[in-house]
Amino acid sequence: MHAAADSDRQLGERIRAAAARGAPLRLRGAGTKDFFGESLEGEVLELRAHRGIVHYEPSELVITARCGTALSELERTLAREGQFLPCEPPRFGADPTVGGIIAAGFSGPRRMYAGAVRDFVLGARLIDARGEPLRFGGEVMKNVAGFDLARALCGSLGILGVISEVSFKVLPLPRAEATLCLELDAAQAVAAFNRWAGQPLPLSAAAWHEGIAWVRLSGAAAAVGDACARIGGQRQDAEPARSFWSGLRDLTLPFFARAPLWRVSLPQTAPQLPVAATPLIDWGGAVRWYAGVPEASDVRAQAARLHGGASCWRGPCQGPRLSPLPRASELLHRRLKTHFDPRGIFNRNRLLPGL
Question: What's the domain range around 192?
Answer without folding.
Answer: 176-250
